Amino acid sequence: MSDEHLSASLAAGAEDGEGRWAFGTGFEDPLHGVDTTVPDGVDAGALAALCLALGDDALVGAQRLAQWTTDAPELEIELALANIGLDLLGQARLLYARTGQVDGTGRGEDDFAYWRDADAFRNVRLAELPRGDFAFSMARLLVLSAWRLALFQRLAAAPDPVLAAIAAKGVKELAYHRQFAADWIVRLGDGTEESARRMQAGYDEAGPWLGELAADTSADALGGDAAGAAAELRQVWEETARAAGLTVGAYAAHPGAGRSGERTEHLAPLLEELQSVARAHPGAAW
């Protein structure tokens, strides 16, 4: 598949054809007019757990992307990664707010972001791995955005109207994130000998984490369809590899699950970096 055909294939998932642009700078409140009451028949515990997990994925992923600031290969790439990170932060804020509404604690987004230790986070572990080089960052971004997009497309019809609204807004953002990553993977894989070597290494490093994502059924109770999302992720992963001239291995999945609270050694120092100012100056405001 050529680069152009891959771009057309992935962009086809955007409803209005604008999926190649970031939507994180919009001013319209995506939850305006949405009833925040948990509907009858919706398991509040499952809803809170899912919103927390998806919020953690977004927050941790955004923090890793922020590490490219002032260090990206080009200024345009740096701006794009910063905007992708802002999209994810916006998703995390909405999801954390919904968690605090549903779990009965009344906690706000800052409580979830700044005042929990690593063992309380429920993100998938791929998000917390070290930044790595640009090739690995693009492989990871492709995995997380393709998987998250597939989930959000399904959760846009979730029985909880707030989660459905958050997911519907996120679909456009995630379509761009996925496209950005795929385009760069093809450019690097089909580039120089060195860029192709690094891109293959990035694929080989990210590939074994697909198994953890495929095994995550936390969204199924709200209409997430883990099996369908995993199948879409695998299709995008393989189509992108073919377009880039990369080899897809029969990856042995890493044991464990971030959704169960299992962490790598890399999350705690990342959170220390993220939370340092808030914890040094509790209650401070502009």
From TrEMBL:
<dbReference type="InterPro" id="IPR007814">
    <property type="entry name" value="PaaA_PaaC"/>
</dbReference>
<dbReference type="InterPro" id="IPR011882">
    <property type="entry name" value="PaaC"/>
</dbReference>
<protein>
    <submittedName>
        <fullName>Phenylacetate-CoA oxygenase</fullName>
    </submittedName>
</protein>
<dbReference type="InterPro" id="IPR012347">
    <property type="entry name" value="Ferritin-like"/>
</dbReference>
<dbReference type="Pfam" id="PF05138">
    <property type="entry name" value="PaaA_PaaC"/>
</dbReference>
<dbReference type="InterPro" id="IPR052703">
    <property type="entry name" value="Aromatic_CoA_ox/epox"/>
</dbReference>
<dbReference type="InterPro" id="IPR009078">
    <property type="entry name" value="Ferritin-like_SF"/>
</dbReference>
